[in-house]
């Protein structure tokens, strides 16, 4: 039976080890507060994700992705998802500026900034009620205790609480996120180079990771989910090639045009050398 989210579904096959990911034509922003149907978007987003994943696969990034299927579906390994969004920032913009108001928009980071946000919905993580969704995760100086912070406030004004997570899971979460960070930096380098070759600039993007459940894989951490216009901010020839256009309230036909251009440009990714 398919498990459906806001913008895609996953249908397990072959004893649940493999899944078919289907992208919908639905577009959402603000955690579902804004929602529209954009016929054709599911196919374009799938094409972009497949292009990006095949490029990353060729360059040695461990992936859940297996291969293309239909126009709006691809095949993936099913894994246990790590409940964290990993954001890579190469150029300062977006929510980073809310947490760091002293930083000028457009600042190019010498080394990309990696941030972790806990994935929550309905302001809940497991049984814990939270004052906001997707709080930021940060470890204390010693690196032993993890705290949650409001994602839209400077840290000194934004502390929420300590992440109460069973101790063992807590230390394995830190270890897992260090692996995610290493892979995310590699993805940042590769994707940045690929967009640069096409005349684009990659500002930031979001990744999600999972652990393979097959015992032979020893719970290897792999890049999972999707990686398309909804996941990044890219400016190409002065055009914002990302969902940011939709978040900013642009006309739906212009938003669809962005998905089309991004799909056409990323068609070049799988054969690109960086
Ligand atoms: P920000 O934290 O500045 O809003 O977003 C940073 C980057 O992560 C942007 O490229 C944005 O597209 C991506 N991002 C952040 N949160 C989400 C999310 O919930 N879903 C998706 N698809 N991308 C996200």
Q: What is the count of β-strands? A: 19
Ligand roster = guanosine-5'-monophosphate
Percent of sequence in beta strands: 25-35%
Instruction: Determine the fraction of residues in helical runs and give it as a percent range.
Output: 25-40%
**Rg, Cα atoms, Å:** 18 Å
Number of helices: 5
Structural class: alpha+beta
Low confidence ranges: none
The backbone outline, from C-alpha atoms, is: globular
Biggest sheet record: 10 strands, antiparallel
Distance N terminus to C terminus?
40 Å
Q: What is the succession of H and E elements?
A: EEEEEHEEEEHEEEEEEHEEEEHH
Multimeric state of these chains?
A: single chain
Mean of pLDDT: 94
Task: List its salient traits.
about 270 residues, alpha+beta, 10-stranded antiparallel sheet, 5-stranded antiparallel sheet, about 25% helix, about 35% strand, globular, binds guanosine-5'-monophosphate
Condensed summary:
The protein has 274 residues and is of the alpha+beta class.
In terms of topology, how is this protein built?
Elements: E1 3-4, E2 8-13, E3 18-23, E4 26-29, E5 34-37, H1 41-58, E6 65-68, E7 73-77, E8 79-81, E9 84-91, H2 95-99, E10 108-118, E11 124-125, E12 128-129, E13 136-139, E14 146-149, E15 159-162, H3 167-197, E16 200-212, E17 221-224, E18 232-236, E19 239-240, H4 244-247, H5 252-266
Antiparallel strand pairs: 1-2, 2-3, 3-7, 4-5, 6-7, 8-16, 9-10, 9-16, 10-13, 11-12, 13-14, 14-15, 16-17, 16-18, 18-19
The protein binds guanosine-5'-monophosphate.
